[in-house]
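Re: weekly structure request thread

Next one in the queue (380 aa):
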Amino acid sequence: MAHGFHAEELAAFREVARRFACGSVRPSLSSSEFPFVPFAGELADEMESLGFFDILVPEKQGGLGQSLHALHTIVEEIATVDGSSAFLAFSQAFGRYLLATFSQNPHHTLYVQSRHEHRALIATALLHQPEDAGEYLRATPVSGGYRLDGAIDSMVCLPVASTALVPAVLGDGLEDALFLLDLRTDGVQVGEPLLGLGLRGCPLADLRISARVDSSTRLAHPDAMNHYRMAIDRFRLAAASISLGILRGSYQEALAYAHDRHQGKRPIIHHDMVRELLSGMASWIDVGSAALAHTTQKLESGQPVEASQTISVQELVTHAVARATTDGVQVLGGYGYMKDNGQERRMRDAKQLQSILGSSPMRRMEVMVRRLDRADSIPS
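Done, posted below.
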């Protein structure tokens, strides 16, 4: 599914993403955000046409068949302008990556049909710990299908999606499964849009289900949930790339302001306190970039990468960015807290990204659990 590391291809993707971010995303940024203003569907349509959503889908299935590194490049570049747009691309790339993995199964027909509709977005449970998300839904086998009962809170893109990928516990509680759910199904209720701390351009809502679904909606792969968890671990690096892009944007705006803003008859870039704040931001950009590049290269080259390592990289980058973007606000002084520029939005987006793919405390616990499991498997 990957072409590997080709510098020219990655440079081309970066340039396309940069032009999209500067030419389409930046002019559409508003002082208000969804649900106070309508969802920016035209941006989603443009990302679809540029292939951002299908970046990891194999060419034989109509995608671009690129590597994770290409996805990281795209979302990081978009995030320098707007984290929400980058997260939208991330969420759809994740959903379509899963569907491509299971594309030989009957469930795919539902999605292929929905793609011919306007803006066929997929809702996903990206604000949950993967191992826990399925516990909110129970799937009971019935004649010709399943009975789904339960709820999943804060599903990404749910208010504007046509389908949803939902994990569920099967009736006996001993097995998990994934379902591709048509949101028009009787008994499926989409709640009112939720107001999040950040990433508001990528709508959230709660899902309530008490419905009977056809057996073809289940992802029929015999090891579907393990593939789901493996995909989560790989996409942690893409989430970290969004955080890094947000930090780059914050640093660039703070640096430009420090050059233009004068105090005491000289630009504030010459003030030691300002330089210290900017230096800290630049250092985290360097450290985060190195950690992401190293781990991504190992994954793409087929080298073994422990799941705890991808979690650790996500934790390192998202925590550093959440703190460093507050420095980006401080460089602008009181202006940094105003909606006239992007710093306060970047600060909120960076904080929201800490909750992607599980809360930070749960991720930290997961790192230790996985390391202990690995240690237990090594004879003393």
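The first helix runs from residue 7 to 28. The radius of gyration is 21 Å.
Next request, please.
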